[in-house]
Amino acid sequence: MTKAVVGAMQKSDAADGNNPNDEKIWPQVLAILIASLGAFTQGVCFAWTSPFIVKLVEDKVNYDISEQEASNLTIVQPLTVILTCMIFSKIPDIIGRKKTLLLLSIPHIIALTIAAFAKSIYVFYVSRMFVGLANSFLWTAMPMYIGEVASPKIRGALGTAITFGLNVGQFAVNIVGSYTDVFTTSFVFLPVPIIFVALFALMPDTPYYYLIKHQDEAAKKSLRFLTRKSNVEAELKKLKSDVERQMSEQGTWKDLFCIDSNRKALLAGFFLRISQMFSGNIVFVQYTQLIFKKAGGDVSPEVASIIYNVLSIVLHITVVLFIVKRFGRKPLYTWSSALCTIVLAVMAVYFYVDENMVEIDTSSLSWLPITAVVSYQVVSSFGVTVMSSMMLGELFSASIKSKAMSVSMLIMAFGTFSSNALFNLLNSNVGTYAPFLLFTICTLISTVLSLYMVPETKDKTLEEIQMYLKGKKKSLTAL
């Protein structure tokens, strides 16, 4: 991924010429890819349940854990986020986006260490609580960091870096976790947050943050690093003007809900998050092997989950290099949601027939579940699973961005908790088809609403997006 993206960006740089005052974008790519190491570890911790829910239940020698107790592991993390996200809302503005992301490594190390030595389900619950704390750090700061570091022409592609890091982490834990125990898996991934701290400490904070703190010289150094331009006075002056205008708004909680442009951004963010959570995406991540086990078929759950996660990574790279830069946010999201509806409907019908119509032999259709899941990954990869992460760092004014991120975290945690709880409830009491039927209905509704709820931010600077949300037109030079 790093070589592919940097290579593509360097070609773009070369096309622009070699003038020392031409903006280079590879430093922005480098900073954001290093930041995505934090998302990688979060992906490991988040998808840890995929290989280990089944193992914890089946291993009666080392653990005495029921299926229901193990399933509760998926809801402890979002519950923790719900309880903590508001506390984290001010941290990126107080200590900076960079330092907030560096703090991410602490709960990651604690969570992996606790899981390595845990025997009781309650100790595992404590480990999941620290995963929730890490999630609060990640989603409070990283969309802001990406949105404020990346130039408009590459912000769409780099906005998917969080999802890319999560996907690679999910893939890694499914491979390692499928063939090793909890202890070994934990210590395989423990060095990653340490490496992340060592590398990301060398990166600058965002120019936006420095200007908010009236540190003009630090902002200038950050711009020079990120653009590799010797003279950034014009960019600094313009960026300072944009930040001052945005910070002139009071930025209170009331402003978040009462100012029209903020409310539009908040509603768009709310829609993107809720529609993502109820598209089935989170359930696929956390229950990958369990879903394949229930579906049966010739491919083992372990192998099927690895195929699923490899596809996630390949599709993500494809989306970054060939799709996001060519099409707008709105059409991508609408088409993605519509196609997800079809795939989820197919899965709902398959599981209904398999569980309730015993007179029909479904053994000849054992290929269908994995085909449907692979198809879901294809059609969700260019819209449903990436757009919320990409756009959250773009939509909000500097004055209320940290508050908006915390509200977004609350919405995401609520959606994760609700979708996991509903999956457990419907799967246990109605049938596996029921949650997929629910997700089908939700994505159908999202497809229609996306036509009205998703603003177009492609190729706009952060200030241009604010003017667009305010219903104004402002011609600005790209940052």
Automatic annotation (TrEMBL):
The keyword Transport applies. It is a multi-pass membrane protein. Residues 1-20 are annotated as: Disordered. Residues 31-458 form the Major facilitator superfamily (MFS) profile domain. The chain crosses the membrane at residues 29-50, 70-89, 101-118, 124-145, 157-176, 182-203, 265-286, 306-325, 332-353, 373-392, 404-426, 432-454. Pfam families: Sugar_tr. InterPro entries: MFS_dom (IPR020846), MFS_sugar_transport-like (IPR005828), MFS_trans_sf (IPR036259), MFS_Trehalose_Transporter (IPR050549). GO terms for molecular function: transmembrane transporter activity. It is found in: Cell membrane. One of its GO terms (cellular component) is plasma membrane. Keywords: Cell membrane, Membrane, Sugar transport, Transmembrane, Transmembrane helix, Transport. PANTHER family: MAJOR FACILITATOR SUPERFAMILY (MFS) PROFILE DOMAIN-CONTAINING PROTEIN, PTHR48021. This is Major facilitator superfamily (MFS) profile domain-containing protein. It comes from Diabrotica balteata (Banded cucumber beetle). The lineage of its organism: Eukaryota, Metazoa, Ecdysozoa, Arthropoda, Hexapoda.
